[in-house]
Amino acid sequence: MQDDDTTNSQAKRSHDASTESVRGEKKYWLDDPRNVRIIYVGLWIVCGLLVTADLFYEKHIEFPIERVWGFFGFYGFVSCVLLVLAAKQLRKIVGRSEDYYDR
Amino acid sequence: MIDSLPPGWLLIFGGLLIPLVRGRGRSIYMLLLPALGFLQLLMISHGNLLQVSIFDYSLTPVRVDRLSLVFGYIFHIAAFLGMVFALRVKDTGQHVAAFVYAGSAIGAVFAGDLITLFVYWELAAVSSVFLIWARRTERSYRAGMRYLIFQITSGVLLLAGAVAHVHQTGSLAFDKMGLSGLGSSLIFIAFGIKCAFPLLHNWLEDAYPEATVTGTVFLSSFTTKMAIYALARGFPGTELLVWIGATMTAFPIFYAVIVNDLRRVLTYSMNNQLGFMVVGIGIGTNLALNGAAAHAFADILFKGVLFMSMGAVLLRTGTVKGSELGGLYKSMPWTAGFCMVGAASISAFPLFSAFVTKSMIISATTEHNYTFVYFVLLFASAGVFHHSGIKIPYFAFFGHDSGIRCKEAPRNMLIAMGLAASLCIGIGAFPALLYRVLPFEVDYQPYTLTHVITQLQLLFWSAVAFAWLNWIGLYPPELRSVNIDSDWIYRRLVPRTLAPAVRASVRLWTGVLDRAGRRMTATLQTVYRHHGPEGILERTWPTGSMALWVAVLLALILLLYYL
């Protein structure tokens, strides 16, 4: 596989440091920052709609706390933010340079 | 004839013959073997199909029931998909290793006694390490060695446990044993190593990312799921497993956020998925065990897609580091698409596989009032979406455009990814197909309005958390780094602390030897002084002096006599 690894990786990297796209290449929809913004805002709107949906059906839940409006959305959001912030701290403790074990 | 062969043998012995077949015939042959094996399972009858007596013990090399069949089916499917993915690999050794490995994993899930299990267990360990070594780098050689030490240790514990167990119970049969006594405890730890229990887990994250492009796909399918099967067979309803499993779901995801090697991220997320299955086994009800088996089935497929897509990226770009990649959707749109199907499946989006499998386990926790565990699993579900569902596709295919332009993955790899991705969607959209082959009768309805909406809330709000943290620049960037885990203990701590200890003991030893030597020399010198050629006791005295001394003695005795 080793030789396959090398023969196949004919990846070309553009040296134009700040390129949004390689020169002469077609422009992709996502290359436009405005469209990324559309996705970002769209995501918030979907999230808003999903918690609004909570008002319109009867939730069959296991624990009383889940009855709270938008509980699962809130739980997911807080979990992920805490996860990332905790992981950043974890990196300070366990992060080492790439050749740590080779030294 | 084919149905009288023990399951797995077709792959093991058929695999050994691969070097004899050449050219196009080999490709067909390699795809035919797992297909035939699968057919064999469809025809096989249930029960103890083979029994052998050795001394006073009866062995059951083949035992077929619903639990073993679920794993048998998926192992054959995994072997087939893996082979499609690896079809163009020129290195014959890898194919042979992959077949022997897959075959022994299949053999293991049909083993009815502990000795047969042990044999397959070790065979899987030894054959699989070649998929790591096949990368032929110093790094993979060392990682393979560490991997092998863990795997063999697990085997040795299994054997020791089997001996103690038979001593205790008089039976070698591999059935539900629970934690009772020394034998079953040793077996429990043996399974725990392969299942990547906390602190016994790091061989997984250490070794799998060092294997070849195709090797990791095979590795991700068999070893750990074989251990899940073994736990489900031997230790269902062991409460300790609920807590072990809950820990497994939670702690690896913190690592998954900061690890740079994307295949390593996947191993951490695999560790987390195994946790869900372990929780299911620990609860041990029909629903929970069904959930564990179903989730193992689904996991092999979506982990397969994810490892395949990252393998394709490694093949084409030469790296899978998040810090180096980005924007690859332009070059590899199909791979990106399949990867996102895998990502949606592991994240349990409605209509994707984990939605109908993982939820069985989570529901089972509520049946028995494991409230705390329930919320841990919910946290882990949000977390898994965060790192496997978003981080993997985002940093590889989207995110900051790295400027890398490469070819799309080879066609056979795309076909393999496409097949696995379709199965992920198939299971998610038509769960009844999978539910039919589960160990117990299924009375579970995944598609309720509450479940769909709450799950979508959980996932979309997790996604928006990722997007928001990225937007405001709080999300930790991918860095070229390694993160120490429990492997630090045996890769750094022990060698480093032992080195001075070894030096010190050598010094002590030479010191002791030195002193002992000097003491001995001194003793010898004393002996020499008295007994040597010039020593007073060894001197040759004249006969006259002896006669004189005898005369003196006689005179003395005479004197005493008179007194």
Structure overview:
- The complex is a heterodimer of chains A (103) and B (563).
- Chain A has 103 residues and is mostly helical.
- Chain A has a domain of 70 residues.
- Helices cover 50% and strands 4% of the residues of chain A.
- Chain A contains three helices and two strands.
- Chain A is flat.
- Chain A starts with a helix and ends in a 7-residue tail after the last strand.
- The N terminus of chain A is likely disordered.
- The termini of chain B are far apart.
- Chain B has three domains: 234 residues, no CATH class; 250 residues, no CATH class; 43 residues.
- With 563 residues, chain B is mostly helical.
- In chain B, strands 1-2 form a two-stranded antiparallel ribbon.
- The mean pLDDT of chain B is 92.
- Chain B contains 20 helices and four strands.
- At the A-B interface, helix 1, strand 1, helix 2, helix 3 and strand 2 of A face helix 10, helix 12, helix 15, strand 3 and helix 18 of B.
- Strand 1 of chain A pairs antiparallel with strand 3 of chain B.
Number of DSSP strand runs of chain A: 2
Helix content of chain A: 40-55%
Beta content of chain A comes to under 5%
Number of self-contained structural domains of chain B: 3
Separation, N- and C-terminal Cα atoms of chain B = 112 Å
| Overall pLDDT score of chain A | 79
Structural class of chain B: mainly alpha
User: Beta fraction of the residues of chain B?
Assistant: under 5%
Oligomer: heterodimer
Q: How many strand segments of chain B?
A: 4
Largest sheet geometry of chain B = 2 strands, antiparallel
Could you state the order of secondary-structure elements of chain B as H and E? HHEEHHHHHHHHHHHHHEHHHEHH
Q: Indicate the overall shape of chain A.
A: flat
Strands ordered across the widest β-sheet of chain B: 1-2
The percentage helix of chain B is over 70%
- Backbone shape of chain B: elongated
Instruction: Give the averaged pLDDT of chain B, no decimals.
Output: 92
Low-confidence blocks of residues of chain B = none
